[in-house]
Model the fold of this input.
Amino acid sequence: MSSKSIRNKRRRENKFDKELTYESSLPPYEPVHKYRIYFLHELTSLEDLNYLINFSQHTKCFAIDTESNYGSNDPALIQILYIQPPDVESPMLLVEVQFLPATSSPTFFKIQQLFQSIFCNDSHLFTWGDIRKELNPFTIYDIFSMPIYSYLHQVQVQFKPWFNQWIKKYYSLPADNIDNDLNDIVIIDAPTYDPTLLLPTQLMNNKKFYSGETWSLQDAIVYTFGQYLSKRETLRQWSIGLDETLYTCDRSFSSNYRKKLIKYACLDCLTVAYINFIMQQSKIPLDMNYVHKQQQTSGEYTLSNTLTVVSDIFQLSEDSSYSSEQNNTELVAVHAPNERHQSPLHSIQLDCHQHETEAPALVSTTVPRSHKRSSIAKKKRNTKTSHRHRANRYNYEIIRPENMKITSIKKLLRENHIKYTNIHVVHSVLYIGVKSDGHKHLYEQLLPSDMFV
Done:
């Protein structure tokens, strides 16, 4: 099995374990918004389409998601929620693109009109990911065209800085004032600690905010509302005809199976709408760099999507490593069996003149001088480079007692999502090198002192 296959298998196993943990620890997500499902396909009535077109002309905000078939990745379903106040029944469109009417039919023309009214110039479209990437494969069905000139809100990337500010605000409030400030903040009901997959809220926030990790929709629901959003139906065949009234739907799938897919498809939009609702109500300013609108004249988006949130503590200092060209003595991380470990970085002195180099050979003046290093010089340079790289791998180090095989240690680290640069064991002491000081502080909290004993 290739290393890529092993990584993919491990990733699937971790997702499965997380799904089980969330399901067993948390209540299922219950939608707050009222909604009514409208299937859009060849049997949709003109009356329903006219109603939806009229409704969309009085609605400015929509939550959108898409689904594709597992394996082939063929586009299959577009979900659109008309965002209304939670107590108002909102239309939920499930567009089954594999079952659209003929392009020359009045029904198809009305579906085009409906998308034109939803994707109009002053509409606001909310998605968890990049809506342009989500919708681009669906343009082959001619029910809409790209680019879209609406305001495009990427909720996922807005959520990270918002949640960070939200947590700071929550924990800065006196305990007796929290209940009086519910309009500004929502009480987190997530479990406080689970050593395998559930982290304390503050620790999870730091892990996401100070790294390149994005929030999955499932994790956002867990740590914001303390509820479980199932993602088991993500990898499915969606072109089966969710609406059983379709003459050509695949009858080999049961009604219960269809209901599960329909519920999953609806919840993806409902959760995005509710998270956005909470963010808007929190009075915490949202990062508008992740709201895009394309100008019809220039063909360019007015706002950039390249804003990066990175903490200085995760930036390796340029001074943290030594250059062999600047110093004849360099620091090397070693774990000597007979030496007591007293600091994260041990230093030993290397005598750079311990090897005598060979005398240069006489070269004819008519031939250019060769710049090739001798074998001894190459070996010396490689040794210095190895020492420098080894030192960098242990600049930031976590120390734990151990009493298990190295393969078991690595497995435990992977299961706990610990990204190490190197590990080494000396006399039942485990040294774990990590990338930065920020990772060190984070992993010190994640790894119990007796984890490897």
